[in-house]
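Slides due. Your pick:
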Amino acid sequence: MPPGGRGGPGGRYLTEEEKANAPKVTWPLLKRIFSYLKPYWKQLTLALGCIVISSVLGLLPSVLTGKIIDDGLIGRNLQLLIWLIVLSLAVTLGSNLIKVGESYLNSWIAQHITFDMRNNMYRHLQRMSQSFFTSNNQGDIITRMTSDISGVERVISSTFTSILSNVITLAVALVIMYRQNWILATAGVLIIPLFVIPTRWAGKTRWTLTRESQECNDEINGILNETLSVSGQLLVKLFCREDKEYEKYKAANKRMIDLNIKESMAGRWFMVIINTFSSVGPMLLYLIGGILMMRYDSDITVGEITVLVALLGRMYGPVNSLLNIQVEWIRSMALFTRIFDYYDMEVEVDEPRTPIIQKKATGKVELSHVNFSYDGERQILKDVSFRLESGKSIAIVGPSGSGKSTIINLIPRLYDADSGAVLFDDMDVRLLPLKYLRQNIGIVSQETYLFNGTIRENLLYANDNATEEELIEACRKANIYEFIENQEDGLDTMVGNRGLKLSGGEKQRISIARVLLKDPALLIFDEATSALDSISEQKIQDAIDPIIKTRTSILIAHRLSTILAADEILVVKDGQIVERGVHSELVKAGGTYTELYETQFKKAEEVK
């Protein structure tokens, strides 16, 4: 172990932010932490036993060294000398073997606890509503799942066991030292600050440099992530910023090199100080022991002095580590607190306590006096009511930000209405099992998401058991099979990260095929043809038209051809349905729809 204890001197100090945000340690918090240990109490008990035994055995060779010197060497007893050496080696081997077992048990317990925590966290996050993911930073969510829970593993496998091992080692060493000679033992205790003070001074200096180096490294990583990503490097090229970005990277890299050199040299000076004071302690004990032997005719022996010197060296590490117990404890509690904060977040959209199981869904939808706001303050939907019969279709149109997408998000319970009722097949959606509800609703969104895999894998995400014939049929209906046939690998063509190897129209049509494989009772198209070229749009429109004639459908659209295909049109403005009817009626009414027709729909058709 390095002089700074586990992990050396670096990282043993709290930042100002950590001090300010230090969690309040309460009995309920500790009880909750120990609840994760409870299932593994047998392995934990065995691990604690190994720690106690290995800590005690680890000090015995130091005691036996005194016997080897006094009774073996000075006593000129060869047989006893050999026996003591063999015993010392056996004790050392036994201690190390027990430590191996202890290490395995610690790792096993820590891994299983983090396994449980990761599973619980992932399952909990899956249950969170859409608002959780839109309002929380994705990086923070991933950090809780990875770094924070990995930190718990280190706490269990290292911090807790280190504290226990150090306490036992220190206690046993003190008992043995005072049994040997109380004067030298007291002197040894007083000498310990000579080790600790310079260690903490040098450690703090090195920690400061390490923190600055990490901040500089974060800056460099930020530059690399921004300028070497697909979008970032394109922006750099288009704005001719290569030289500027190079100079910025070069300057940050130079700061990093300078800090690394300072940190390296600080480490060298640290070792010089520690090695010097490591020699001072034993020398002082030898001096005091020599004075006792020569001036006061003490019965202390050379072997006993040697034992005390050896034990003093064994005490330094535990003392230095225990002096940092506050830092380790606060960081450990902070980790658990951050994780529990996520666990305790309310599941806004949860399964009904007594779900009602429906028969085969027909896709009928009704919203009755629905009000909704995302933040509880700014109201998005105001008294929205409409009914969609099975087998029929409606188009929802309106200005940007009027609440069109919010309406369709309430149907599969991505959010819950603040008041009013959302009905599916004449049943309040809050009474239906979430899996049943969402299995019977298919949404083709404006922003198509494909996993980094093959076309086949992305299609099978909707239905694992789909046959080859079903895949092909869905692709034909989505007007994408001709494209797939022309690919060398067909359905096994890789789509790239987020589908970047495909055009927007191709991704959208694969998305439509994926939804068709789901075979939902209700189909929702949310601006499925927006931001596409006219050719891609026409192919998607050709796919949508026959689909909505055979299924209950809701279409959010800005293209007149899509709107005209619907049985009824709802006009939404400022979160309210202000008009409803068919195209010919609404155009003549001279209201919001007429305005949209003149400014958006008509122009879009002319451009087309």
Summary: Residues 242-295 form the longest helix (54 residues). Residues 191 and 284 are 8 Å apart (CA to CA). The first strand starts at residue 365 and ends at 373.
